[in-house]
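Methods: holo model generation. Sequences were used as deposited, without trimming of termini or removal of tags, and paired with ligand SMILES retrieved from the corresponding compound records. Each pair was processed once, and we did not select among multiple samples. The sequence and zinc ion SMILES for this entry were:
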Amino acid sequence: MTITLDLPSIALGKPAASSGRDLRVLPLVCKLCHTTYPGTASATCEECLGPLEPVYPAGRALPSAAQIGARSPSLWRYREWLPFEGTPVHSLDSGFTPLLESPSLARLLRVARVWVKNDAVSHPSLSFKDRVVATALNAAHALGLDTVGCASTGNLANAVAAQAARAGLPAWIFIPHDLEPAKVVGTLVYHPHLVRVRGNYDDVNRLCSQVADRFGWGLVNINLRGYYGEGSKTMAFEIAEQLGWRLPSAVVAPMAGGSLLTKLEKGFREFAEAGLVSGQAPRLYGTQAQGCAPIVNLVKRGGEAVEPVIPRTIARSLAIGNPADGRFAARAIRDTGGWVAGVSDEDLLTGIRLLAESTGVFTETAGGVTVAGALALAEAGRFRSDDEVVLCITGNGLKTADALEGTLPAAPIINPKIRELEALHGRDL
Amino acid sequence: MAVTFSLPTVLARLTDGQATIQASGTTLGDVVSEIAGRFPRLAPRLRDEAGGPYPFVTFYLNDEDIRFRDGFATPVREGDEITVVAAIAGG
Ligand SMILES: [Zn+2]
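and the model returned the structure below.
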């Protein structure tokens, strides 16, 4: 007897409804020259090629802390600060990850308190990219785009593949050819069109900007970028709410393209403007691997223009040599009184182990950069003893487990005999 | 040197819809000048008032970001492909 399981047709399903009458995207404005555009699948200003971001209606009704608190635990509880009018239809359960306190890390950093914002357990794909993809897929729906995709260093590929599968949308996903195996498997399992491109992320990115132009697909971090990026703000909203509607004094986050730092600043500011939190904006600290540190270099050097680099680091999810939001991230860091840290690959591996041993959270290489960067900042006297610090952990360690090979102690093997364990343990049990 | 110059759609409206242009010059800067002369409305989108590239517009010469070479002073060869891309990132 032969049984045929036609997985591809199940995985691809039917295309999503073409145009979301019940969901509309907000208009866009150029961050550089302030030209405005109706909502559209473009992230580039026609006048100056600067980046576009959504414009929220002035005087729109905003919820109170109590109203937000009564909503379901997803990033959509902050929907008034996401770039839509109407009801979202995809990825309704992403967001609202744990914020856990780590007294051990507070002692190590010599500050009052430390929390870990744990997007390593983000739903569904175990990284903070679930936030931006949830936003972008709804933008694709609102704009009537029936194919989505991305250029990715891995986590975004996982998030787009997972969420597109569930939404029934075909996905075209482009990655550097030599990405970590777990990130390839964690994409392929959802059966997208996965394309491995010879070159680094910046090469993939360039190809994808031409793909978006030519094919008219909704590439989440290319032509849907203006909407996509807003999803990152929800990390700031959650931190504020989970601290009891107040702000930490410092936040440490990893930098790749630089968008997360920019959106954290925007998120905290929007909650302050809405009167949901008060007090000083958190000082924002950005971390990168030394082998790909164009934003760290920019902050240390001063000025506005990022000098691109060729990435050489095991922190693949941060290996963006040409970060387009670099100047905005640098500005957010300077304006809030924060700083930057670049860490070696060796130190980031120590950072991964330290977070696991101190806090019980297994993060990927990018999280190792954040923890090691926080230690370096503490060492350099960047924190005060009364600081309340949040570390943004953006991805799961199982995705880059290979990186730890050879750095962990070997586990002994014994026969199933109690005396062998007693010998191992060094005493009678 | 005859080269091919590719523009994103968002700029092709300034070249009567041509996304790919044949041009010539001995450096990338020459090529940009020649194209700027032929398409005056495109000119201010390709280079700033000082004649250099904008931070948000990336030029690639045969797959290589010209900032890793000599910028607009980079020499071009017969048959080279130049691609203009609006900077985007994050992944
Ligand atoms: Zn503009």
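Helices of chain B lie at 9-12, 28-38, 43-46.
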